[in-house]
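Meet our chain:
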Amino acid sequence: MRNESAGHQLAAPISRRGLLRSTLGGAVGAAVAGRSGSAADAVKPPKKLLLLFLSGGASQLETFDPKPDSKYGGPFRPIPTAIPGIQVGELLPHTATILDRLAVIRSVNTGETSHFRGHYLLQSGRKVPGYPVLGSVMAQLLERPGDELPGYVTMRRQNPQAYTDVGDAGFLGPRYEGVMIIDGKPPANIRRPESIDVAAVTTRDRIRRLTNQRFLERRSPRSIQSYTESFQKADALMRRREVFDLDQESAADRARYGDHHFGRNCLLARRLLESGVHCVKVAHHDWDAHFENFHWQRQRCLEFDRTFVTLMDDFRDRGLLDETLVVIMGEMGRTPRINYYGGRDHWARSMSIFLSGGGLKMGQVVGATNSRGEDPVRRVMNSNCLLSTVYQRFGVNTDHHFFDNTGRPVPILTDGEPIRELL
């Protein structure tokens, strides 16, 4: 994507927040720029986003881009899928049966082998901190009057944290920061302490609002507004705390998803999206297999495969799939060679990502790598092509700009063409 030249958008400094809203929010439901009148425009934009992040970098060779005839292809065999002629690794037998509900991209070259920068690049389109990640952008874009729950919730385990926390809202501010769910536990302090009664809470809140109002009379509103927005988010969480309680799900449903972090978090993600949260990110850990790669890929796929298909079946049966865009990715691929320790190391030149729902064209594989899985040989694309596709599907023209804390215009993306086969 290119920068826009200065124009009427940049000539109205009176309300950066309002301009950002008009740039993003006004695009929801509108036809993608340059495609007005096409049949694809009749497909309604999605309303929700689910990001499943395979933290550490899943091996494309053991999952969605098997190379059984390669010297380093590994011991696992490819299996047929619901798309005729397309195969995936045998570690994903359940996912193979619903591949016609997915779109697989096999030709992504990120150029980045650092975990931290890879996490950030895949979610923000940048390698340096300070920019909003996809979840925070979606929280701002999809925000509606009367929303009680936060726009963005992100889930991970407590230890080891590794490189999963890469920042969220950047210069969009704390209003759009992701609410963190750690080890499946509800956000801290969302219940009123029994020692404080309702009358005391009401009195304290009135004093807080009056104090804020007096404070604002002689000061810039930005910092106090950030505090107010954080307070309002916490207050809303307290009113809707029941949505975080998995005990309200049946024992049978909890068993279907699996008794592990990823299973519980996917079930909670479904509850949150059904309850009004606009964007959820779930991290699935330990794909970084420098040692005993085939053992680790087997363990990770065993957790992921059944839980993912259970989630996709529930989305279909509950009518969530058409209104929710699901993105599954990690921060990198793995080396097409096996190292001394039986592991695969970091590999930036080829990785696989896949998507479902949201009105995209499913049941296809886009791109291809060479016979060893080293490099893309057809439809080479960078990670921003994925972000550009997501923004386009939500009706956002990626030539538009954010404005940072200094008022400087910042393009949503600096490069990356949408994946036209999906739109």
Q: What stands out?
A: Residues 1-40 have pLDDT under 50 and may be disordered.
